[in-house]
């Protein structure tokens, strides 16, 4: 006789889930027992921290389209999931949390931990999940598992929690007589797809044909819809500016002549400058968030706009679009491309090329310096030489995202760059690399993190080693929280709490990695970067390359020189940088010819 842990493991395997990331507890041991008898189809990856398990599951989901599955026990395990769940919720990543719970008869004793580790988990998860359910009985569990997959993968994808009481997990399940069925359509996001209305499509096509300087902003929704071929075909028909959000990188190769990189304060000079010159901006699978919309200064009042999104609530949330296409991204792009002949905008393409050349010249100047401490662009340029199109780059939050976006080009369509932009929380890269490496064992996984972000999850290096993963962890160590130092210096002229080092404290991350059994290399001279990366890339296992960088370096274009200009220079008031702009209405749809 089997138990309900077998039922859960069997249904996960039937849904095509190969990996479960998490930390066992007494209440969830039945699940681990069930997985152990199905290792030909599903296995468990033991993490050092439940928060990190969610990040690993997030990376698995981004690279496969399947829900990332994370398991945690009741109480202390459950209350570490919000960071990873919120990242997945805001980034539209399908995820399923299998959460342990007290026995059903004990639920009245959950308050204030009268029953050990108890608290109101259902209300807790409802606040940061797409949905959450408490399983009331063993007979209800199969349908709730099917519901969890359907909700997690349906537009807009996101994380859900399935809370299973201990007595239900341990209950008997007669596998021979009780059969279960799964809905294979919900094994991958999106579960269903929609198409735009004929009228909306006609209006959008008319607007595109009239545009003289069209631009498209590709967001993470392109990856969520697996719409890389359609995004490329539409861009080729449009013959206009193509930029991406950070999470949209790889929607099209950035080597294309009309592709200008990442639209973000941390992003590409060309993207930031050129988007302001467009007369039509198509926001495709992008929610026009604070950073992609440049602190909501975009779109400009005079710009016509088209929004393409499978979530109806996104249309008109931060600006009034000229045309709204409520549609799956892949379906809308295919129909738009089919309805267009190849457009011709030679003057616009010439302008794009000129501004891109200006940006490349600026980057070349930053790369060429031999300064000590090392300028991060020099390190990124060396890293770019060693990356292949099939490698996966995982970014931590803060400045690391900008160094990657500016100096590591996306040369291939597809999701080869993973960014923690749903929450923008530090500590994403190391555990996410575990999920990425487990999903693509044949690829090289490269992480880039600052010393602040890397400090969050350094214990998971042991997991990388235990899993024998080919991960190169690059740590850009400036001895401080770079973003916080910049903010405090510019706006307050008083660096108060950004220092991670002192006279008595100089953390050595390469040495810490070596102590855990990894290859650890410390670099403080520009000429040593290349050889260090060569050693790391040739190493059969995980490594850490710690690079000592300039503490005043920043990828934010508007701030790059301000840190060195001195106190006599004018500086903005804090409210002028992150200020919600007034509601602006885009231009009305022009009359049809």
UniProtKB/TrEMBL annotation:
Residues 4-122 form the Thiamine pyrophosphate enzyme N-terminal TPP-binding domain. One of its GO terms (cellular component) is acetolactate synthase complex. Its cofactor is thiamine diphosphate. CDD domains: TPP_enzymes (cd00568), TPP_PYR_POX_like (cd07035). Keywords: Thiamine pyrophosphate. Residues 202-334 form the Thiamine pyrophosphate enzyme central domain. Residues 400-547 form the Thiamine pyrophosphate enzyme TPP-binding domain. GO terms for biological process: isoleucine biosynthetic process; L-valine biosynthetic process. SUPFAM superfamilies: DHS-like NAD/FAD-binding domain, Thiamin diphosphate-binding fold (THDP-binding). One of its GO terms (molecular function) is flavin adenine dinucleotide binding. Gene3D superfamilies: 3.40.50.970, TPP-binding domain. PANTHER family: ACETOLACTATE SYNTHASE CATALYTIC SUBUNIT, MITOCHONDRIAL, THIAMINE PYROPHOSPHATE ENZYMES. Belongs to the TPP enzyme family. This is Acetolactate synthase-1/2/3 large subunit. It comes from Oharaeibacter diazotrophicus.
């Amino acid at each position: 006789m089997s138990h309900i842990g077998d039922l859960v493991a069997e249904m996960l395997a039937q849904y095509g889930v190969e990996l479960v990331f998490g930390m066992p507890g007494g209440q969830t041991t039945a699940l681990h027992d069930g997985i152990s008898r199905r290792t030909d189809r599903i296995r468990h990856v033991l993490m050092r921290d439940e928060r990190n398990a969610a990040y690993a599951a997030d990376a698995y989901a981004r690279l496969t389209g399947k829900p990332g599955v994370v398991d945690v026990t009741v109480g202390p395990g459950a209350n570490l999931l919000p960071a990873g769940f919120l990242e997945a919720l805001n980034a539209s990543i399908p995820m399923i949390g299998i959460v342990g719970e007290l026995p059903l008869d004990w639920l009245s004793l959950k308050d204030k931990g009268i029953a050990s580790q108890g608290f109101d988990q259902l209300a807790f998860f409802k606040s940061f999940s797409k949905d959450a359910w408490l399983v009331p009985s063993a007979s209800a569990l199969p349908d709730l598992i099917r519901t969890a997959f359907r909700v997690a993968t349906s537009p807009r994808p996101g994380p859900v929690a399935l809370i299973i009481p201990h007595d239900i997990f341990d209950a008997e399940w007669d596998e021979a007589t009780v059969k279960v069925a799964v809905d294979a359509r919900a094994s991958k996001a999106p579960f269903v797809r929609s198409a735009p209305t004929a009228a909306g499509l006609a209006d959008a096509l008319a607007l595109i044909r009239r545009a003289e300087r069209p631009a498209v902003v590709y967001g993470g929704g392109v990856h969520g819809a697996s719409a890389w071929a359609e995004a490329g075909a539409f861009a080729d028909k449009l013959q206009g500016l193509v930029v991406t959000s950070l999470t949209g990188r790889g929607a099209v190769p950035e080597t294309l002549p009309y592709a200008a990189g990442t639209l973000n304060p941390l992003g590409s000079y060309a993207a930031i400058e050129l988007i302001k010159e467009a007369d039509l901006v198509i926001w495709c699978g992008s929610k026009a968030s604070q950073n992609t919309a440049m602190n909501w200064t975009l779109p400009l009042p005079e710009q016509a706009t088209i929004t393409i999104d499978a979530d109806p609530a996104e249309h008109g949330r931060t600006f009034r679009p000229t045309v709204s296409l409520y549609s799956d991204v892949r379906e809308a792009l295919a129909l738009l491309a089919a309805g267009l002949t190849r457009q011709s905008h030679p003057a616009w393409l010439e302008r794009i090329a000129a501004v891109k050349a200006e940006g490349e010249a600026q980057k070349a100047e930053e790369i060429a310096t031999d300064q000590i401490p090392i300028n991060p662009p020099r390190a990124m340029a060396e890293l770019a030489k060693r990356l292949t199109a099939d490698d996966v780059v995982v970014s931590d939050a803060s400045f690391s995202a900008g160094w990657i976006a500016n100096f590591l080009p996306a040369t291939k369509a597809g999701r080869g760059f993973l960014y923690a932009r749903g929450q923008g929380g530090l500590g994403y890269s190391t555990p996410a690399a575990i999920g990425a490496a487990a999903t693509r064992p044949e690829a090289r996984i490269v992480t880039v993190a600052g010393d602040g972000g890397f400090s969050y999850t350094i214990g998971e290096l042991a997991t990388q080693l235990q899993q024998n993963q080919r991960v190169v962890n690059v740590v850009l160590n400036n001895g401080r929280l770079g973003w916080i130092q910049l903010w405090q210096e510019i706006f307050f002229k008083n660096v108060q709490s950004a220092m991670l080092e002192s006279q008595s404290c100089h953390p050595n991350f390469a040495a810490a990695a070596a102590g855990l059994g990894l290859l650890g290399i410390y670099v403080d001279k520009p000429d040593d970067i290349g050889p260090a990366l060569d050693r790391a890339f040739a190493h059969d296992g995980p490594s850490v390359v710690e690079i000592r960088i300039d503490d005043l370096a920043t990828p934010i274009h508007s701030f790059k020189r301000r840190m060195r200009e001195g106190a006599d220079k004018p500086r903005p008031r804090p409210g002028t940088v992150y200020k919600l702009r007034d509601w602006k209405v885009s231009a009305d749809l022009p009359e049809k010819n």
